[in-house]
Amino acid sequence: MKAIVQDKYGPPDEVLHLREIDKPVVGDDEVLVHVHAASVHPDVWHVVTGWPYVLRLMGAGLRKPKNPVPGTDVAGIVESVGKNVTQFQPYDEVFGECVRGHQWTNGGAYAEYVSAPEEALALKPANITFEQAAAVPTSGLIALWNFRNGELVEPGQKVLINGAAGGVGTIAVQLAKAFGAEVSGVDSTEKMEMVRTLGADHVIDYTQEDFIQRGERYDLIFDVASNLSLSACKGAIMPKGTYVLIGHDHFGEATGRIFGSLPRVLKLVVMSPFVSQLPQPNFSMPSRKDTMAILREFLENGKITPVIDRTFPLSEVPEAIRYLKEGHPQGKVVIALEHNTKA
Ligand SMILES: NC(=O)c1ccc[n+]([C@@H]2O[C@H](COP(=O)([O-])OP(=O)(O)OC[C@H]3O[C@@H](n4cnc5c(N)ncnc54)[C@H](OP(=O)(O)O)[C@@H]3O)[C@@H](O)[C@H]2O)c1
Questions:
Q1: Spatial distance between the Cα atoms of 29 and 33, rounded to a whole number of angstroms
Q2: Which domain holds residue 169?
Q3: Residue to mutate (ligand 1; options 55, 188, 244; most atoms within 8 A of CB)
Q4: In terms of domains, do 18 and 115 share one?
Q5: Are 152 and 115 found together in one domain?
Q6: Residue 341 reports pLDDT greater than 80
Q7: How far, in Å, is the centroid of ligand 1 from the Cα of 214?
Q8: Is there a single domain that holds both residue 110 and residue 195?
């Protein structure tokens, strides 16, 4: 099969190559998916470049990636299933992640076939395309988990999404609306209109205005862009409000080479039992399976509409990653495989 392969860490333009490799062998609890679309997000850049170093110790591979094929998000048609798989069968249209655990590892999505864990997939809703479905899994899981599957938002509350027009932000705005919040979306000038069409009640252009100076207070500040901090936001959060840090390190520009944004995220986790404006630690993370099922339902009933900025063919994955980093996309960058675009 054709796949994008990396033999070492480094700049996407230098280390990624389109090659013929063997089709993956499906594990007992895995599903072999004929890939129709995949998508790109900042963690893909992290694993391709091996930046920050700590991800190499966290399972991505010490000297080179353990899995040479990048990409974590996939949508396609089931080719075959492992012997323990009960939810899916050949010809099912599915979408989901092809990684287990965290997203700082290659999942193999940028290929004609990928073997994905059953628990990270869901049936693709019939009302969306493969490209739209592939745009959702990682961003949707990050958004939903950080809203604690809805527990952090009550109807009528004021929620501010900082970085509202990116992969996570476009889904977070729509989820917050679906949970009944009054939503403010912060992003750059040219993205204001799109954020409004997602349902945001208020839009704020970060290039023109610092929302913290407005004197408004929010029940939840959802910091996807991660340029804020709890102390900087104090005056803009209600006394019983919450600050959530997603941990975007702006492709290595905002954080260190060794640990990236990990120390910031871990510091807030350690502080959380003592600071009421942080998400409290007494929460058991819902399974991928349950969260994918919730995302599927939101897609099916039109509460989430995936936003795709641009689509690239498999051979242009390096360009797609460069466009994510430098092109200021609105929503997601998607990889469409040729058999899908011809269909
Ligand atoms: N916490 C978790 O559970 C978890 C798990 C996995 C991954 N992550 C992290 O989540 C992040 C994913 O983010 P994403 O896919 O949404 O990224 P993205 O697509 O790059 O979106 C970021 C958005 O923020 C905007 N922005 C930049 N600077 C801003 C500022 N100062 N104020 C407001 N908005 C600003 C960007 O616009 P411009 O075009 O103007 O730059 C862009 O629209 C990754 O960094 C990943 O590592 C978190």
A1: 13
A2: 140-271
A3: 188
A4: yes
A5: no
A6: no
A7: 22
A8: no
Centre of ligand 1 from the C-alpha of residue 291, in Å = 21
Q: What is the pLDDT of residue 116?
A: 98
- Exposed/middle/buried for residue 254 (C-beta within 10 Å: 0-12, 13-18, 19+): middle
Q: Are 98 and 117 in contact (CB under 8 A)?
A: yes
Report how far ligand 1's centroid is from the alpha carbon of 83 (Å). Answer: 39
11 found inside a domain: yes
Q: How far is it, in rounded angstroms, from Cα 146 to Cα 279?
A: 9
pLDDT digits 0-9 by tens, 157-184:
999 999 999 999 999 999 999 999 999 9
Same domain for 36 and 23, yes or no, is: yes
Q: Which atom in ligand 1 lies closest to the alpha carbon of residue 186? A: 33
Total domains in the fold of the chain:
2
Pair (170, 116) in one structural domain = no
Q: Cα(195) to centroid of ligand 1, in Å?
A: 14
**One-letter amino acid identity for 134?**
A
Q: Give the pLDDT score at 285.
A: 81
Q: For ligand 1, what atom is nearest to the CA of residue 329?
A: 39
CATH number for the domain harbouring residue 187: 3.40.50.720
* Residue 1 burial (10 A CB sphere; 0-12, 13-18, 19+): middle
- Ligand 1 pocket, residue 219 CB under 6 Å: no
CA of 144 to the centre of ligand 1 (A): 15
142 pocket-lining for ligand 1 (C-beta < 6 Å): yes
- In this predicted structure, the answer to whether residue 337 has a pLDDT above a threshold of 90 is yes
* Ligand 1 close to Cβ of residue 169 (< 6 A): yes
Which of 271, 296, 325 is the endpoint of a domain?
271
Instruction: Give the atom of ligand 1 at the shortest distance from the alpha carbon of 250.
Output: 45
pLDDT tens digits for range 257-297:
999 999 999 999 999 999 999 998 877 888 999 999 999 99
Angle at CA of residue 290, ends 284 and 142, nearest 5°: 70
